Amino acid sequence: MDRIYLDHAATSPVHPDVVKRMIPLMTEVFGNPSSIHFFGRQSRQAVDEARAVVAASLGAKEPEIIFTSGGTEADNIALIGTAMANRHRGRHIITSMIEHHAVLRACQYLEKQGFEVTYLPVDEQGNVSPADVKAALRDDTILVSIMFANNEVGVLQPIREIGELLKDHQAYFHTDAVQAFGLVPIRVDDYHVDLLSVSAHKINGPKGVGALYVRETVKFSPLFYGGEQERKRRAGTENVAGIAGFAKAVEIMQETMSDKQQEYRLLRETMLSIFAESGISYAVNGNEDRCLPHIVNVAFPGTNVESMLVNLDLAGIAASSGSACTAGSIDPSHVLVAMFGKESDRIRSSVRFSFGLGNTKEQIAKAAMETVKIVKKLTTK
């Protein structure tokens, strides 16, 4: 069976050129980058060069990049580290109801530490309103965290407008850009963000490595204690091979971003046109005018998401019901609940397809036709 992978929003295959870049850093350049001898200096050079690449991709300064174990750690540092270091200025935080759990659960932890968190709603298209952010702002608000683009429905949030709102407020502005990085050009100064999270494995880099941009004026407390790595901001020996692979993925990302945008829009149109021509009942979740091109979250009325995913897998198609971080959970998608309410049929009948490296128009057409067959089978009475 020829299997078709349509779950790139959960993780993406590692680009062959990334693998090539990493191998020498696991076999030949193995020194600890904190060591001052030749072997250590070799590794340090690889980390420094990678930092320059990641910083340049965001329009940031090199010292403003902290390498992490991934997006979750980056989000945790941004929220918990910043909140703890600035609690003398206030204890109020603003976020949205559709954030990744790395943000939401960090906020829940902070609530237990005495912070107050305002969770902003979204409309039925998944949009956070800048007016709601403005209304929620208080004198004691120290942090606002709104994701750049949602990982389940792909909706792009009004980050530029929110950044403008916060320019003259004491609150730091964090955005989780893990899903958007690589498909949307991001310059931190253009969006007036103070902290920004990214992850390698969403852009065809290795798992277990990410980065947090921290504007040089931001005060935060480290979460790890031990060595003095990452300028004393993130203790622990750096994942040199992973960091170098991340940088290579970023270089490839920058060279191919425009082509990928066009390619994924074509794949999206291919899938949705087949659904439309088939006569099945379906609805796209999220704002189709402001969305990432590679994510298509679709509700199929009369179906059950578990049955859909099982049947898709049996047909050789990998898709998902939302965030991979909630795999195994019986709870409905918190994103779809926020958009449509707990009683909506959409939270029980929606599937996320996401495109990426290796997908072809022919694959997408086949996957769409197989999906149509499954929907017809499940809805036939």
UniProtKB/TrEMBL annotation:
The keyword Kinase does not apply. Its cofactor is pyridoxal 5'-phosphate. It is an enzyme of class 2 (transferase). This is cysteine desulfurase. Transmembrane segments: none annotated. The keyword Cell cycle does not apply. It comes from Parageobacillus thermoglucosidasius (Geobacillus thermoglucosidasius). It catalyses: (sulfur carrier)-H + L-cysteine = (sulfur carrier)-SH + L-alanine.
